[in-house]
Amino acid sequence: MRSSILLAAAASFAVCFAAPTADSRFELHEKRDGAPHQWSKRSRAHPDEVLPVRIGLVQSNLHKAEEYILDVSDPTSPNFGKHWSAEKVANVFAPAKKTQEGVAEWLEKSGIHGSRHSYSTGRNWIQFNATVAETERLLNTEYHYYEHDISGGYRIACDEYHLPQSVREHVDFAMPTIQLEGMRPIPNLLPKIGAQRTPQYGLTGTENCGNLVTIDCLRALYHFGQGNTSAAGNEMGIGEWADFLYLPDLPLFFKNWTTQPIPADTTPDFISIDGGQTANFTYDNSTGAGVESALDFQTSYSIIYPQKLRLYQVGDGVNIDSVGTFNIFLDALDASYCTYLGGDQPYVDPAYPDPNEGGYTGPLQCGGAPKSNVFSFSYNQIEAALPVSYQTRQCHEWMKLGLQGVSVLFASGDSGVANRYNAGYENSCLTSPDVGPYVDINGTRFSPSFPTNCPWITAVGATTIKGGVNATVSNGEEAVADPDPDDPKNDYYSGGGFSNVFALPSYQSAAVTNYLTKYNPHYPSHIYNNSGNSRAYPDVSAIGLNIPTVYLGTTYGVGGTSASTPIWGSIVTLLNEARIAAGKGPIGFLNPTFYAHPEVFNDITEGSNPGCGQPGFQAQPGWDPVTGMGTPNYPALEKLFVSLP
């Protein structure tokens, strides 16, 4: 509905607009450096169109973010495991009073009276409605209608905007301004469905691990036993956007593919966020939509039962802008982050109530959803398709969850050093940095993912058992490689690389420097960020090919970092169970301990992750941007984490 209104507006107003005059008091705050991918600029926005303006205030103490998170997560810190309360997090990072007052005073002087604007719950956002004409004067910019080349949808945006010098130090970014990309989170890959198999009964051995990596194969490979505890408050969380869990498949999976008896009526706790439902999805075996959720929950239940799972179903699946974005998930956990009481961006994140026919008519959920100790996400977006300010602000929110004892794991992607711009599109790379970089199907520069590029999450790559269909677990692992000879856009390689946005965190500095020094990939700077000073990923890996998954009554071998991520999330849940049994708290942010203790991993030294017309990176001894630190050695992990405070 919103798109049709904007289309009518763009077509109807044939009037002349005077450009805002240059003002020496203003300085450039944000700018889009080139033409946006798949968006075309149309006419000037009508001056009377009303915009929901949101200004993100600079938060206090973010320059200490790394110091704070390492204080509670570095295994050598005396404060390891002493996680913060949500109240402490909100208070420490709340914008300074001078920031709040300075921006409010500027708005007043600019004609936006105090009665028109309000603050978010955490007072880190100030919001008001203003016409295009008012906003152009306020930000010394010009707004246009942009049309999406594929969907035909329209948005209002500018190419750049300015702020007074005295105000810039208090503002992270304003919106809507330059934001266009990132219409929806991208499933890393609709999980790859291998050859169809008839469900087998009572499979308990490890004889067929080269064909199908059952739970018994995983236990033999990583040396973890059956779950036997379910500590209160340690339920594992899995977020779902594009797919809905088809519950009748669960009892079939439990019957046929788990050696530990799991009752047929076992289902996850359902957490609905902004209209998330269990049964509003049409399952279509030809597309495989719905496999993602089946894979996540069947795999995790096999590992952690009798501990429970939580299904966070995000978004109503109707909203034109998204099947849900990570921000509306964060809104539901943290009332201080919410939009229009918080962190979302109009024209990037979906608005609720949903104006589309059949959409969720309730308000955007703002707080109230329970926090889990572990979250597993099998979705990502493309770093180059989102404003740096947007990524930075959201990355800080993942950091705040880590401060509260939450482990956040994201799939690293299934396109090697490339990426998928959207579900069903070809793998995309980037243009050279001197003109962007921007997403380009024909690009040659490597394309990192978001939020796997965020230093405060754990990015998970994928491996496979060496030796093909005749493999046994004693063969060991290598980086996953599953090329599609009929359709190269479906080639599957473990996502990995180096961010163009986030700096190298101290916890991985030694490991990344070792890789770049000893095993220099020798690509020039126009191919990837070879500075040695950027966040690198993945952090860890696990099996990500031929995982048994029951979908609409039939068993498939499913792959993707969508498979390896819930495996790791489940293993971390078992580690938390062990710590709780020892009278200790959850681990929280994982990476500092992981990088400090390479001995708790199976080092993967074979394989690569090609893309963008290049061989990609090569797996090597120690950390590498294909498989990270390696795959789990559970006994060593448990011994380590139980020994920590």
From TrEMBL:
- In the UniProt entry, which residues are flagged as the active site? 292, 296, 562
UniProt keyword list: Calcium, Hydrolase, Metal-binding, Protease, Serine protease, Signal, Zymogen
Q: Which domain of life is it from?
A: Eukaryota
Xref: PANTHER family: PROTEASE S8 TRIPEPTIDYL PEPTIDASE I CLN2, SERINE PROTEASE AORO, PUTATIVE (AFU_ORTHOLOGUE AFUA_6G10250)-RELATED
Q: Where does Ca(2+) bind?
A: 603-604, 622, 624
> Transmembrane region positions?
none
Q: Does the keyword Hydrolase apply?
A: yes
Q: Which residues form the signal peptide?
A: 1-18
Sorted alphabetically, the Gene Ontology BP terms of this entry are: proteolysis
Its cellular-component GO annotations read:
extracellular region
Which InterPro entries does the UniProt record give?
A: Peptidase_S8/S53_dom_sf, S53_propep, Sedolisin_dom, Tripeptidyl-peptidase_I
Which cofactor names does the annotation list? Ca(2+)
Q: What is this protein called?
A: Peptidase S53 domain-containing protein
Q: What is the protein's species of origin?
A: Mollisia scopiformis
UniProt GO molecular function: metal ion binding; serine-type endopeptidase activity; tripeptidyl-peptidase activity
**Domain (Peptidase S53) ranges:** 212-644
Pfam families attached to this UniProt entry: Pro-kuma_activ
Q: What is the annotated localization of this protein?
A: Secreted, Extracellular space
> What CDD domains does UniProt report for this protein, alphabetically?
Peptidases_S53, Pro-peptidase_S53
Provide the cofactor note recorded for this chain's UniProt entry. Binds 1 Ca(2+) ion per subunit.
Q: Is DNA-binding found in the keyword set?
A: no
